[in-house]
Amino acid sequence: MMRVLLLLAALLCGLPTLAASRCDVRVPTETVSLGEVRLAYQSIGRENDPALLLVMGLGGQLIHWPDEVVARLCEQGFRVIRFDNRDVGLSAWTHGAPTINLTYEVLRYRLGFPVSAPYRLSDMADDALHLMDRLGIQRFHVLGASMGGMIAQHMADQAPERLQSLTLIMTSSGAQGLPAPSQALLQLLARREAPSREVAIEQQADLLAALGSPEVSDDRALLLQQAAQAYDRAFNPEGVQRQLLAILAEPSRVELLNRLRVPTLVVHGTADPLLPVMHGVHVAAHIKGAELKLIPGLAHRFQEAFKEPLLAAVLPYLNAHRQAVGLARL
Known about the structure:
This is Pimeloyl-ACP methyl ester carboxylesterase. It holds the Pfam family Abhydrolase_1. The chain contains 12 helices and 9 strands. It has one domain: Alpha/Beta hydrolase fold, catalytic domain (Rossmann fold, 3-Layer(aba) Sandwich). It is 44% helix and 15% strand.
């Protein structure tokens, strides 16, 4: 009996170390070819743990999922997969990238005419589903932020039988009549051309500051550091413009949301300057059975002050909808 107790004690004492080693976010970035695009991704955690796919927003790379958040999700017993959407980061076209006329298409959008985009958000949802196919993962959880939440909505519509749960953070239904962001913020978001690395980094730091919460005082040096890290990993303004067109070309997803039957959690901040809080409220109202959690002061970024409130909103929901897999909970 004493031997059993000693063995159990040794196992329990070693669990934090085991969790840390299996949840190392510094795993190599791998690539997979999916027809017209090649996606870069990371898989953090054990292959037999329940899979959680993270889908990033407009222009965001997989590194924009904070490492400490990814590690915490993994330590809860999830295999966390984060990837670069097509046209950003280390993802690339297998042939030449499509050309666009952003100025012309944005003008058509403002005049109420249809927008021509080289691909749609539903195509980006296909990318994500095919990535999971290639990884041999049939059922999984999905967490999408901003545009990633819009892509995740399409995933839940296209393959509802594959999603164990859906978590939508700071996203929208795309319906007409919802509050719009300021014109100044839209201009910052569309400002992607830059004559030099220094100018590009300053512009990105300006955008990050504008997307932050008024309750938090940003450290400019830290914003510049984050912008430099993203620039040095990959800088593809034309790709971000194509992603923007995919959003502008998208009609309202209200009918799509009305037919969803996937367990869904909607999380939104009360201080979101890009997609004001009514966007999240509207999404939750149109998904049957959806839970809504509003986080006071949260804006449109994963700022340090709000990481714990976000995890506190998301982790209980994910754990409630996970499959029991023995010690994976430890």
